[in-house]
Amino acid sequence: MQGTFLDTCIGPSYSRSDGEGRATVMLETRPYHANRMGALHGGFLAGFADHAYFAGLAAMGRPEQASAVTVDLGMQYCGSGDVGPPLRAEVELLRETGRLMFMRMTIHQGDGLVAASTATVRKAPMPK
């Protein structure tokens, strides 16, 4: 949707299923993703992680969860990312209950690990 946070701040992403409960989400990095030192901004990386969980769920065949909500998101910054090379998020659905999904991901740039994340997502209510 045009004009949203994802559209104006994160940018277009590309995703694919990697099998049951696994997906990869790719994102091109842009100059406006940088911090004052020219590396990828931590807030941008957290925003991308939050987006990648939902893009990953859609790629896993769960598009109905587009209106689910993030309950908890943790980030571990493992290295510095550069503007220019694409980011690759490897998303995994660890466990699912009646109302929650427990997920994790790693974010890479080339062969380097940039960040890791865990999240709890509250499922969207199913239509009756």
Radius of gyration equals: 14 Å
Strand order of the largest sheet: 1-2-4-5-6-3
Class inferred from helices and paired strands: alpha+beta
Overall shape = globular
Order of helices and strands: HEEHEEEE
Q: What kind of sheet is the major sheet?
A: 6 strands, antiparallel
Low-confidence stretches: none
Query: Which percent range fits the helix content?
Result: 10-25%
How far the N terminus sits from the C terminus, by CA atoms, comes to 26 Å
How large a portion of the residues is in β-strands, by DSSP E? 35-45%
How is this structure best summarized?
The chain has helices at residues 5-10, 42-59, and strands at residues 13-17, 22-27, 69-77, 87-96, 100-109, 112-122. By secondary structure, the chain is of the alpha+beta class.
Explain what this protein looks like in three dimensions.
This protein is 19% helix and 40% strand. It is of the alpha+beta class and 128 residues long. Strands 1-2-4-5-6-3 form a six-stranded antiparallel beta sheet, with helices on one face. The protein is globular.
SSE diagram, text form:
Elements: H1 5-10, E1 13-17, E2 22-27, H2 42-59, E3 69-77, E4 87-96, E5 100-109, E6 112-122
Descriptive key words:
single chain, 128 residues, alpha+beta, six-stranded antiparallel β-sheet, 2 helices, globular
